[in-house]
Amino acid sequence: MEVPISIISREIIKPSSPTPNHLRIHKFSRVDQINLDIAYPIILFYNSGAHKNSSSHHLKQSLSKILTHYYPFAGRVKDHFSVECDDYGVSFIEAHIATNISEALQNPHPLLLEQLMPYKPHELITTTQFNLAVQVSYFGCGGVAICVCFRHCIADAAAAANFIKSWSAVASRGDSNTDAIVKDVVFDFSSIFPPEDWSGLSITINSEEILKSSSTDIVFKRFVFDGSKMAALRETIGNRPTRFEAVFALMWKAVTSANTEGDVFVASIPVNLRRKMNPPISDQCMGNIFAVLIANWPLEETINYKDFVEKIRELSSLLNDDYIKKSFPNGWILRHMKNIDAGINDDTKSSRRRIFHISSCCGLPFYEADFGWGKPNWVTTLQAHNAGDNIFVSLADTCDGKGVEAWVAMSKQEMAKFEQDSQVIAYASFNQIA
């Protein structure tokens, strides 16, 4: 579904004050290094945006102010080890889209959403040096969509959410004292997670293959677990699962049960480490501060939802401060990535090994982003992937914070089985946003 969209203007927004010389080099941590260098888009929809001229001015002005604190976003990647914080600026695009915002909310088709982005979702950053790009799209009805595209080697989802929240706070308050809103967001995590030389590791060389245009066999769909259905699912599982645990358990069972080829699925689960460190790291800190849990559970061990949730919790409990600080600096990530790259897994040598990658933005403050027009009606991350033989799931909050939205990418054949699973039908829907 494509709708005519016209670009109104393109600008480069620089920090309102220069970055001090002693902060001009921002070092990558080991976790920053392992991320694919891709565009990570967040789109926020507002039914009643301000007049275009006034909103344009205060968005640019507030963005310039907040960049003085998040200065690596306004810099350029120097090499595989650092960012040069040279105040190069961020891309700021304004556009007019010839439809009403209700079209996007009632039928959030990926092709429509892609038109609201400065880059396509998960596009490799090869043609630009911008670490951050913004597109503000004005709908004919007066609504506004703000898409912020982050360079993933600079920030994870938690950092992205807190940047947007801080930017919106500056925009809505019109306060020149940004220190009162945000501080201490840039930290040298290379001291905790020292960088490594990844040369010779083919998984980094082949990154582009992962992100080539999806074939026609890949389907990308959105499933909604509203608040009431989510409460019912959690009650059915028992043992008070989180929303993430409940949806993950349901999807894992639906996917593995539908598999008739004898494939072995390995779950890949990114986990935010900010509050697992001692002392905890501020939620506002930018960077990639997460670990990826890898789980390989035989189907017969996870056929029961409750047992599955217990296994997730047991695995997650390993990620405490002591484990993180002992394992990460000693090359654990590099050894783990090499094992994935080499396909080392004694249990799967005779079977096709596939990745079930599930990430979650649930609980992050995207819906707190008030630029002066109220809180957003809908926020989507639209993490579109070329799934290939693998399966990608991206979870986010519903606007009331009680349910979960899931974007799912898998083959046409598997999607046909997945969406007919009795539990998926019982708890998920294709409800419109508003």
From TrEMBL:
One of its GO terms (molecular function) is acyltransferase activity. The keyword Acyltransferase applies. Keywords: Acyltransferase, Transferase. Belongs to the plant acyltransferase family. This is Vinorine synthase-like.
